[in-house]
Please model this.
Amino acid sequence: MTVDVQATRDVVDIITGGWRAQALYTAVKLGLPDHIEAGRATDAELAKASGANEQGIHRLMRLLVAMGIFEGSESTGYRGTQVSAALLEGPQSLSDMCLLYGEEFYSAWGHAHHAISTESSGFEVAYGRPFYEYLGQDAATARRFQLTMNAASMFFQQVPEVFDFSGKKVVDVGGGGGHLLATILGATPDAEGTLFDLAHMIPKAREHLSASVGLDRVELVEGDMFQGVPAGGDVYLLCRVLAGHDDDAVVGVFERCRRAMADDSARLLILDRFVQDENSTVLPALWDLHLLMTTGGQHRSVERITRLLNRAGLEIAGTSELPMETTALIAAPRTA
Model:
């Protein structure tokens, strides 16, 4: 049997992917991107600033330079790159994502065999409780999760480009920290908004909306989308809030949005990743499995979401592609 060198290399690259992820996680945990940005350019300086062993830092930096996270060397001095710049502390930093994925989510993926064999959450095996229950009991992880969601929302800026919110009353259902609603209102001066979410999310949303667009254009409403949603909206938003729930629960949310709409000209805008079984790209398929590992949930296909919308008296009126393989589905009330 002839050894296929390229196939062997491909397998090695795949199975060592977790090592690379942990190396990046460790760099962020030690604060290396910020230390290098501050001018600490040698192993000794980085070790002193981070509290790590100097030789350990040397070996880690050798790999991180090879991976393109940093440039330079011990002899010439380490320098940042565009990749490391994305990890610097700040509002849009990916550092919290690296920490969450390197700790809690890494542990969940350690139970991938169990999760796939039983189609149940790997996180629950690792931590003894469901993911969202864990967040409710661990404020630090909950904060990191919210910051991760915010940092992964680079498609928000394009949402006002794919739908006309002018003069509309926008209801963001499960609006989280208010970043999407703030983006829409910031781009549409004559629109008004309602952020609707569970009680523990409202203070953070109020803080962000107050600082970004002002509370004179926003109403904040506490509630559960599985019980009801605010009435009278022209546009209802569901952004990445459906994947952890079963089909009947999702249909129920669609039905509540349909009943709450101001009139038949209102629309439901669903922003999410959708899977496809034929010619799938890696990212949606990977994120679908990630949902299984963390919440036991799943991403759906556009065809499946369409069937659920139809059950709720809605139909697809348009679609638009957004960055990071996210899709905007625009649903309208069925008139026939």
Observations:
- The chain is about 50% helix and 15% strand.
- The mean pLDDT is 93.
- The CA atoms of residues 4 and 10 lie 10 Å apart.
- The chain has three domains: 5-85, 95-150, 153-333.
